[in-house]
Amino acid sequence: MKIETSPFIQTFRDLAHSHELWQHPFLKRCREGQLTLPEVQILAVQMYKFSKEFNRILASILSCCPDEEAQWIILDNLFDEMGQGDLSATHPELFRRFTRAIGIPDANLLEFPATVETQAMIQTYLSLAHQYNYLAALGAICFASEGIVHSLYSQLYQGIQGAAPLTREDLIFFELHIDVDDSHAAKLLALLEPRIQNENQAIDIHRAILEALDARVQFFDGIQRRIEQMQTFTSLACRPAIPSNRLAFQPLVYSHSAS
Description:
By secondary structure, the chain is an all-alpha fold. It has one domain: Heme oxygenase-like (Heme Oxygenase, Chain A, Up-down Bundle). It is 69% helix and 0% strand. The chain contains eleven helices and no strands. It starts with 5 loop residues before the first helix and ends in a 22-residue tail after the last helix.
C-alpha cells in the first residue's frame, strides 16, 4: 500500500527552512549589507568553484537514473545551465561576468584554489546518487539547492550590492537564479512526490538533503575562515616593517594550498 507522500514532502521543506544554514554569521552579514569588496571576492571565487561543477553534479545523477521522465527533468535543467545552447549564456560564463566586474580576471579565477570546505561540498553532491540513489540525489537538488536558491541568493545579492557599484548585467547570474530556480524546484517536486513509495525511500531523501545542507554550512565556514585570514594578514601588514633578516608574512587568503 502506498504511503501518503505529502507528510514526507512537508518534512523535507521543514528541514530546509529550519536548518542552521540560515543562522550562519556570514549570511547574517549579507542580510545587513556589511560585506566589503575583498570579502565579496573571496565569496565569488568559492561560489564559482561550486557553480562550474554543477553540470557534473547533474550528470552524475543522470548516470544513475533509469527513469526516463526523471532523465528528461535532469536534461532540461542541464540545458538551462548550459545557456540553452548559447555558450555565451552558460551559467559559468554568466558567473564570470560577475567576477570580472569585481576585479577578478578569468586567469586568476582559475588559479585560486578551492577551500577544503568547497571541495567537500562538491564531493558531497557528486557522491549522493552513488551513495543513496537517484531519487535521494534529486531530493537534495530540489530541497537543498534549487528550492532554497531564491532565498539564499537574495541574501547574498544584498551583501554583494552593498559592497560594490555593479550593474544589473554584472549580476545577471544571481538575478537569473533568483527568478528561474523556483521553476526547477517545482518540476523536481512534481517528479519526486509520486515516486516516494515507502518510508525507507523518504529516509534516504531526508539524509541526502541533510548532508547537502550541512555541506553548504561548511562551505560558508570556509568563506568565513578565508575572511579571517585576510583580516589577520591586513592587520600584520599595517605593523612597522620587520627586520630584513626575518621571513616576510605570506598572504593566506588565496595560497595554493587548499587548506
